[in-house]
Design brief:
The structure is a single chain. By secondary structure, this protein is of the alpha/beta class. It is built from 37 helices and 23 strands. The protein has a domain of about 325 residues: Aspartate Aminotransferase, domain 2 (3-Layer(aba) Sandwich). The chain is about 40% helix and about 10% strand. The strands form six sheets. Strands 2-8-7-6-5-3-4 form a seven-stranded mixed β-sheet, sandwiched between helices. Helix 4 packs across helix 29, helix 10 crosses helix 11 and helix 16 packs across helix 19. The longest helix has about 40 residues. It is globular and about 85 Å long. Bound molecules: pyridoxal-5'-phosphate. The site of pyridoxal-5'-phosphate has 15 residues, from helix 24.
Length: about 950
């Protein structure tokens, strides 16, 4: 029974701003005390003092600084953000340029985008508990393959512009025209794509020309990029140009549009080697720039050079069909500076939304939508022609560009003024031209308004009359009309009723282990709470419905939110300026390295190109360095896991003349606070280098120390780790960079207003999900964030302490403490029992847990990061599972189990094992699937047995198998 408080007191209780902090942080005060006692620490501050080197602890004055954010309640924060959001003006957008309004089907909005079962999962590195999103991504690949007419597709890239840059890099890798260093960019491509590709080329040291497409024949190139339909909406055949480039051993990439491809002959049919673009208009809000999934497809013979993740078909130990990520040896986490790309986090959640959109509508529905969009464009074109307006494009799918007059009613200024009054955005970045792109949301009424805007009132045209005149007209040249089928696989032709769709989405969700089931203690990935309050604003129309290139005065709410977030992040990082443009951590690394390079160049140091990277670094670090044309020199780590200072001193001195920077992660990926971080920064600075601190481990720094305070010059922040953006099953993410003032002039530029210097298609990256981090910081306040960091460290140390008697902790720092994560060493066990880290990872699934990070940064280990959000009971459950697994390993060691027949090597166990009449293993079925009481109460069933990776790579299939093959 709770006692009734006086009203004034209970009112203030209702508005307790500490409440969210206590909900975000898993262990309550009593549990924290218990854990501290286990560790022999008296308080959180005491634990931090034991753990974090004194010379990097922020002084008390910093903790109490005036600008400190104070925590607020969920109600207040959401009300504040709503007020900010309402300053955004939602005009009807006809800007096009790769971003289109659309209708997110509500069944997808609620059950995918707003559903933690989909948005809190991680990249499917444990495929046995990820068959749902793997299936969905395979569907996505199939959709892209069908529409582009190519043979293999990846499971998304970050945006269209970076996909184009990846295509250029791929052309360079695979072109047989080895003598050429020139990449051709047709000048009728979206400006942001040109900017990002040119920037990438400058960094790689490739030459580029930007000229009319037909000029490609005048150049000896290793590759060329065209756009179809082009940025003005024109549709013309590039078939002959493609052939000419290929005859000269160059590769051709074509940027394109999925909806247009339902009506147009595919790039594959035209002979293209690569097709890429933005899948956004398939049901994903514009979000002022993102997140959206870029697609990327190529020919089968080029598959080993493909960037990004590819989902492939394999089989499990029972011979059943099973999916997993294929050909991983192309990727940064294995190939490092020799990887095809630095991409790690991509856009899985958005790729899934897009393919669900295609599944929901089916090929006929998409055809209907596309024909309607095309018809609206045709009506509009006819109206313009009837009034003597000159069209820039004589063929079209959805976009019409027209000439404006110098003065009078048809001048650009007057049209734009009328547009503004009618709350309509037209494309206005072209000299003496205006562009209008249509989409599935355009209505007859919209069209009538638009005609008044463009032609001025009193034009005397009626949409109805124009509509009947446009019957049978398409704007698409007959020889480019699509004649081939697409999306004929059953999955695209089954789930058209909402009931079926809902159940299909749910059936896939059920196969996946996400944070709404249990802890995902992936070290380095920071799988913390993604609070519901943080997620809610993402789908507010005030944030969703803004085109990335609207005039700034329509996005005041966005900029207030982003400026505020930027200020908070400046404080938290100890830097001077933030760029929100990079839309993943790896992209942030690349942007940061460009800033370093340009800074050196501004001082005449064009030769500084050496990047020191400790051997423990994440794979994206060397892969990004390579993209900035830096030479990677590996610095050794000592047997305690710390950077070997002698080696660093020696290499920095030896290479001083050409030293560009060091890329270092702090706390190190070994999970310890290195004592010598200040010295490391000093050594590099003394030799003229800059310090890039990888911010992925900021969860161990926030409000306790900071990169700027330690002496670093630039970092990216993984907002999808430390700052609560969910991982989405492999994206989206945001990787803004913070820099000291001397690097600020060299941060990314605006992708449309400038010609080079952008790293993403959209000026503020995936702007809409910045709201998540904004809400998180507003809810926590500085003190709450500090508490979160402390408890993250507490949870990790408690975990380490309790696991240590059973598994050796590989590295510890001062006073035997770990940072926010710890590595358990399984190599001794492997030597004594034959049981591997993989067996343990898979056995954890039987216990209801996703495995920790496996074999990174050290092979044969697991790296555990509980985060502050996991409550003590869950941490204890995990520890109990690990102890129980240790006992099972004992039984292998002692010979009670053979190495061939034990619950570890056969893990994970499925319902197929449960009903196996031939079960004759050395352990019971009950022990197989219900090893603990907790699993009986809340069982997660993996849907496949252990998957055969090698088989999948040897027999590569990256499209949807027929339904029959599942039954076989
Ligand atoms: C996650 C991570 C990255 C890469 O970030 P993405 O957002 O996945 O590109 C880089 N470094 C470290 C240490 C990481 O953990």
């Amino acid at each position: 029974m709770s006692t009734q408080l006086p009203l004034t007191q209970s009112l203030s209780k209702l508005h307790n701003s500490e409440e969210f902090i206590q909900r975000h942080i898993g262990p309550d005060a009593a549990e924290q005390q218990h854990m501290l006692a286990t560790l022999g620490a008296t308080s959180l501050d005491d634990l931090i003092a034991q753990t974090v080197p004194a010379d990097i602890l922020l002084p008390q004055s910093n903790q109490d600084r005036d600008s400190k954010v104070t925590a607020q309640t969920e109600v207040d924060v959401l009300a504040d953000l709503k007020a900010i959001a309402s300053q955004n003006k939602i005009y009807k957008s006809y800007i096009g340029m790769g971003y289109y309004p659309n209708h997110t089907p509500n069944v997808i909005l609620r059950n995918v985008l707003e559903n933690p079962g989909w948005y809190t999962a991680y990249t499917p590195y444990q495929p046995e508990v990820a068959q749902g999103r793997l299936q969905s991504l395979l569907n996505y690949q199939q959709m892209v393959i069908d529409l582009t007419g190519l043979e293999i597709a990846n499971a998304s890239l970050l945006d269209e512009a970076t996909a184009a840059a990846e295509a250029m890099a791929m052309a360079k890798r695979t072109s047989k025209n080895k003598k050429s260093n020139l990449f051709f960019i047709a000048d009728d491509i979206h400006p942001q794509t040109i900017n990002v590709v040119v920037t990438r080329a400058e960094q790689f040291g490739f030459e580029t020309v930007v000229e009319p497409a037909e000029n490609v024949v005048n150049h000896n190139v290793f590759g060329a990029l065209f756009q179809y339909p082009n940025t003005y909406g024109n549709v013309y055949s590039i078939e002959a140009l493609i052939k000419q480039v290929q005859d000269n051993k160059g590769l051709v990439a074509v940027a394109t549009d999925l909806l247009a491809l339902t009506q147009l002959k595919s790039p594959g049919e035209l002979g293209a080697d690569i097709a890429l673009g933005n899948a956004q208009r398939f049901g994903v809000p514009m979000g002022y720039g993102g997140p959206h999934a870029a697609f990327f497809a190529t020919k089968d013979k080029l598959k080993r050079s493909l960037p990004g993740r590819i989902i492939g078909v394999s089989k499990d130990t029972r011979g059943n069909l099973a999916l997993r990520m294929a050909l991983q040896t192309r990727e940064q986490h294995i190939r490092r500076e020799k990887a095809n790309s630095n991409i790690c986090t991509a856009q899985v959640l958005l790729a899934n939304m897009s393919v669900f959109y295609a599944i929901y509508h089916g090929p006929e529905g998409l055809d209907r939508i596309a024909k309607r969009v095309n018809r609206v464009a045709s009506i509009f074109a006819n109206a313009l022609k009837a009034k003597g307006v000159n069209l820039i494009n004589q063929a079209w799918f959805d976009t019409i560009c027209f000439e404006t007059t110098d003065a009078g009613q048809n001048s650009k200024d007057e049209i734009l003024a009328r547009a503004d009054k009618a709350e309509v955005n037209l494309r206005a970045d072209l000299a003496n031209q205006i562009g209008v792109s249509f989409d599935e949301t355009t209505t007859a009424k919209d069209l009538a308004v638009l005609l008044d805007v463009v032609l001025g009132e009193g034009h005397g045209l009626s949409v109805e009359a124009l509509d009947s005149e446009a019957v049978g007209q398409s704007g698409i040249p007959a020889e480019l009309a699509r004649e081939t089928d697409y999306l004929s696989h059953e999955v695209f032709n089954t789930h058209h009723s909402e009931t079926e769709m809902l159940r299909y989405i749910k059936s896939l969700e059920n196969k996946d282990l996400a944070l709404n089931h249990s802890m995902i203690s992936l070290g380095s990935c920071t799988m913390k709470l993604n609070a519901t309050a943080e997620m809610i604003p993402v789908t507010w129309p005030e944030f969703g419905n803004l085109h990335p290139f609207v005039p700034l005065d329509q996005a005041k709410g966005y900029h207030q939110m982003m400026d505020q977030l930027g200020e908070w992040l400046v404080e938290i990082t100890g830097y001077d300026a933030i760029s929100m443009q990079p839309n993943s951590g790896a992209q942030g690394e690349y942007a940061g390295l460009i800033a370093i390079r340009k800074y050196h160049e501004s001082r005449g140091d064009h030769h500084r190109n050496i990047c020191l990277i400790p051997s423990s670094a994440h794979g994206t670090n060397p892969a990004s360095a390579q993209m900035a044309s830096m030479k990677v020199v590996v610095v050794a780590c000592d047997d305690k896991g710390n950077v070997d200072l002698n080696d660093l001193r020696q290499k920095a001195a030896e290479l001083a003349d050409n030293l560009s920077c060091i890329m270092i992660t702090y706390p190190s990926t070994h999970g310890v606070y290195e004592q010598t971080i200040r010295e490391i920064c000093d050594i590099v600075h003394q030799h003229g280098g800059q310090v890039y601190m990888d911010g992925a481990n900021m969860n161990a720094q926030v409000e306790i120390t900071s990169p700027g305070f330690m002496g670093s010059d630039v970092s990216h922040l993984n907002l999808h780790k430390t700052f609560c953006i969910p991982h989405g099953g492999g994206g989206p993410g945001m990787g803004p960079i913070g820099v000291k003032s001397h690097l600020a002039p060299f941060m990314p530029t605006h992708p449309v207003n400038e010609k080079t210097g952008a790293v993403s298609a959209a000026p503020w990256g995936s702007a809409s999900i910045l709201t998540i981090s904004w809400v998180y910081i507003a809810l926590m306040g500085s003190a709450g964030l500090r508490k979160a960091t402390q408890v993250a460290i507490l949870n990790a140390n408690y975990m380490a302490k309790r696991l240590a008697p059973h598994y050796p902790i590989l590295y510890t720092g001062q006073n035997d403490r770990v940072a926010h994560e710890c590595i358990i060493d399984l190599r001794p066990l492997k030597a004594s029992s034959g049981i591997t880290e993989l067996d343990i990872a898979k056995r954890l699934i039987d216990y209801g847990f996703h495995a920790p990070t496996m074999s990174f940064p050290v092979a044969g280990t697991l790296m555990v990061e509980p985060t502050e959000s996991e409550p003590l009971c869950e941490i204890d459950r995990f520890i109990e599972a690990m102890i129980s697994i240790r006992k099972e390993i004992d039984m292998v060691e002692t010979g009670a189990y053979t190495l061939e027949d034990n619950p570890l090597v056969n893990a994970p166990h499925t319902t197929a094992d449960m009903v196996d009449v031939e079960w004759n293993r050395a352990y019971s079925r009950e022990n197989a699937v219900f090893p603990t009481a907790a699993t009986k109460a809340n069982k997660f069933w993996p849907t496949v047995n252990r998957i055969d990776d090698v088989y999948g790579d040897r027999n590569l299939i990256c499209s949807c198998p027929t339904t029959e093959s599942y039954a076989e």
